[in-house]
Design a protein that fits this description.
CATH architecture of the largest domain: 3-Layer(bba) Sandwich
Number of strands: 27
Number of helices: 12
Shape: globular
Number of domains: 3
Bound molecules: flavin-adenine dinucleotide
CATH class of the largest domain: Alpha Beta
Strand content: 25-35%
């Protein structure tokens, strides 16, 4: 029997396990650093806020791991995976030999150097990424913590601040950049969220400031000092400063890069070793090298990798990346690439949308507004529409299949 090792039990690993469970002649082991079933990461902020119970965010159905006929080893981190010896060393001390492997270890928090000692040494500092981090935060809040300093105004930071809005806590976001959601929205687009954020009584956002010092007492951070002279008192510090691919444990011909490189079959430069999900950097449909950042990308890549592991010939379809943040009653979203050479803005109902063009091709959208208006924008990026197509649609030619709501009822934003 061929021995297959899946490292990581997130969306990509689980999709691969589900695909392989139907295959004969394979002995599949899946290991996970976390001691729990696969879960939905985007519900972690709601778990922290007490709006979701732990059991509500798990992905596998009842006894699904047993039903799949795989060996599932939760709580076993791969410390080293050698492509040469085809062996993985686990945190349990066990060595797992394999013939083929899938690396599906997602991303790990990226923490700036000046904050690393705090995370390592202070009991009330958490980098929110995993279920255990979310449960620790929830415990603190349930235990009476009311002042949260959140470092980083990206997707995770903003989602957590939003989830905490009815929780009776005050949240101070500290962002070194000039604005919020900088990796998904251009500054003037992000600025359109100001009226929504102004309604958040529990939230104060400090942008364009660095952290210059801390007041520490009894092993906990009690004060965060900012470069503009402000001192924030706190019960908890949450680091939401970004992520990086989780690849520190791989040994072999894995060229140095931001994330693992794969071909269209999701195979790395090491034959028989595949990778999928946020651990991979791939070329998107707009020609950028990026991590997937979306559940659908992780699942698709996991399925494609598993099909190839099983000996079939499968290739990944063109993919785009994106992010969505809900700040009730609106969403902020990015689809595709927002660094084009040109753009056009549209108003639709209660939404604002910006289409980014690179030369004559639509490469991405940003949307602030009604989630309904987001529907259908995807084909414009995937099918590489031209600006004229948008103009045609605006003129009432809906045959291109692009968001009818956005484009047939839209008009150019004055
Ligand atoms: C707050 C938040 C909001 C999000 N919102 C959305 C959204 O609205 N829509 C959307 O599509 N996507 C969203 N995402 C992104 C989405 O969750 C990820 O793209 C997706 O989870 C990636 O799946 P993955 O399987 O690659 O990695 P992960 O889900 O991160 O799973 C990786 C697994 O590997 C395990 N692992 C890591 N290292 C090791 C090791 N050495 N040994 C063994 N196991 C290891 C980890 O413990 C983890 O279980 C959000 C993410 C977050 C955090």
């Amino acid at each position: 029997m061929e021995r297959v090792l899946i490292v990581g039990n997130g969306y990509a690993g689980l999709a691969a396990a589900r695909t392989l469970s139907a295959e004969a002649g394979l002995s599949v082991t899946m290991v996970s650093a976390e001691n729990c079933p696969a879960y939905v990461p985007h519900l972690l902020p709601e778990l922290v806020a007490g709006k979701k119970a732990e059991g509500e965010i798990f992905l596998p159905r009842d006894r699904e791991y047993e039903a799949m006929g795989i060996r599932f080893r939760p709580g076993a981190r791969v410390e080293k995976l050698s492509a040469r010896t085809r062996t993985a060393l686990l945190s349990t001390g066990e060595a797992v030999p394999f013939d083929k492997a899938l690396i599906a270890t997602g991303a790990a928090p990226w923490v700036p150097e000046n904050l690393k000692p705090l995370l390592a040494q202070c009991g009330n500092v958490v980098a929110l990424k995993r279920l255990a981090d979310a449960l620790a935060l929830r415990k603190s809040i349930d235990g009476g913590a009311t002042r949260v300093v959140l470092v980083g105004a990206g997707r995770v930071g903003m989602l957590l601040a939003e989830a905490l809005k009815d929780r009776g806590v005050s949240v101070s976001i500290v962002e070194i950049g000039p604005g919020i959601l900088a990796t998904m929205l251009q500054p003037d687009v992000a600025e359109r969220l100001a009226p929504v954020l102004a309604q958040r009584r529990h939230l104060k956002i400090h942008t364009g400031v660095g952290i210059t010092g801390f007041g520490i007492d009894g092993g906990n951070v009690r004060e965060v000092k900012l470069s503009d002279g402000t001192t924030l008192s706190c019960d908890i510090v949450v680091l939401a400063t970004g992520v990086e691919p989780n690849i520190g444990f791989v040994e072999g011909n894995f060229p140095p890069a931001e994330g693992l490189s794969v071909d269209s079959r999701m195979e790395t430069a090491e034959p028989g070793i595949y990778a999928a999900g946020d651990v991979v950097f791939f070329e998107t449909v707009t020609g950028k090298r990026e991590a997937g950042q979306l559940v659908i990308n992780a699942r698709t890549q996991g399925e494609v990798a598993a099909s190839n592991i099983a000996g079939r010939k499968a290739a990944c379809p063109p993919m785009f990346t994106g992010n969505v943040v809900k700040l009730d009653p609106v969403i902020a979203a990015r689809i595709g690439d927002i660094d084009g050479t040109d753009h056009a803005d549209f108003a639709v109902d209660r939404s604002f949308a910006r289409a980014t063009m690179n030369g004559n091709t639509v490469t991405g959208f940003q949307l602030i507004g009604d989630p309904e208006n987001l529907r259908g924008l995807v084909p414009a990026v995937l099918k590489k529409f031209r600006p004229e197509d948008i103009a045609d649609l605006l003129a009432g030619r809906p045959d291109l299949g692009l968001a009818p709501l956005l484009l047939s009822r839209g008009h150019v934003w004055a």
